[in-house]
Amino acid sequence: QVQLVESGGGLVQAGGSLRLSCAASGLIFSIYTMGWYRQAPGNQRELVATITSGDGSTNYADSVKGRFTISRDNNKNTVYLQMNSLKPEDTAVYFCNAKYTAFVTRNYWGQGTQVTVSS
Question: What proportion of the chain, given as a percentage, has pLDDT over 70?
Fold first, then answer.
């Protein structure tokens, strides 16, 4: 049974920082592309950042480039999202995602963690 468990969310003032973690179990973590997505009230879920398996290439939404950093530790089956210079518009529920699309497609989601940035 695959589980993705996010942690590290909370309330922070604008300009502050948070570090999200997502601990994965029940899958071969190292072969999955891992990602962070977010969903604000009334909005669709949107991509924040992804990091591939293998060479660990990263991709970011334009709105977070230069402020957020995604990383992974394959020994700990964990993916991180370091969020700096937070803005009120970063307020959302942040979801961890694991995706594998080689011979078969597998796509898993965590339950989400709330990030609230006050102005």
Answer: 100
Spatial CA neighbour of 90 closest among 21, 50, 40, 42: 40
> How does pLDDT run across 7-21, given as a tens digit for each residue?
999 999 999 999 999
Give me the long-range contacts of 109-114 (CB less than 8 A, separation at least 24).
109/4, 110/4, 110/5, 110/6, 110/22, 111/4, 111/5, 111/6, 112/6, 112/39, 113/6, 113/7, 113/8, 113/9, 113/20, 114/9, 114/10
User: d(Cα 116, Cα 24) in Å, to the nearest integer?
Assistant: 24
* Residue type at 78 in one-letter notation: T
CA distances from 30 to 7, 8, 11, 96, 115 (A): 20, 22, 31, 15, 27
